[in-house]
Design a protein that fits this description.
By secondary structure, this protein is mostly beta strands. The protein has no helices and ten strands. The strands form two sheets. Strands 1, 3, 4, 6, 7 and 9 form a six-stranded antiparallel sheet that branches.
Length: 154
């Protein structure tokens, strides 16, 4: 976080919870939250910079997932994103679209969220691992989320 000298502190935080097991999903499914207790969140607390005219808030969530699937599986993965406690919206990041042999792979992907905040406004972004299985079975062996958070005052 960068702030001019007169803006000496701010409540700009990120939190993570990673109690992820190894869940298996069998298709067909809609997009599902893979584990509601596995999330990452970036938050700017309203009024923590009272001398500020506003703030640029940017966060990036980088996922590292290892998946194991049965033959002829097709699926999509991504993040279900929640802004300020609102409704979830899925951002799809990776797909396996063609039928084929069983497999196991690791992927890295990211989603980001940025906003210009007015003075005295707060903002929170939370992401959950999400998966949609169109056919076959997919087991999530590992899912790790790294979080970057940038705040610049005006």
């Amino acid at each position: 976080m960068w702030a001019p000298p007169e803006h000496t502190s701010a409540a700009l935080t990120f939190q993570q919870s990673h109690p992820f097991g190894t869940p298996t999903f069998t298709g067909p499914t809609a997009f599902l939250i893979a584990d509601a207790s596995a999330w990452a969140e970036a938050t700017y607390t309203a009024d923590s910079l009272t001398a500020c005219r506003g703030m640029s808030f940017s966060t990036r969530f980088t996922g590292h997932a290892e998946l194991l699937w049965t033959a002829n599986s097709t699926f999509d993965i991504g993040y279900a994103i929640q802004v300020n406690g609102g409704a979830l919206a899925v951002r799809q990041t990776h797909s396996k679209l063609a039928n084929g042999a069983a497999g196991r792979e690791r992927w890295t992907f990211l989603v980001s969220q940025a906003v210009m905040l007015a003075a005295h406004a707060g903002y929170a972004v939370r992401v959950y691992p999400a998966i949609r299985v169109t056919a076959g079975s997919v087991t999530i062996q590992q899912w790790i989320t790294d979080t970057d958070l940038i705040g610049v005052t005006r």
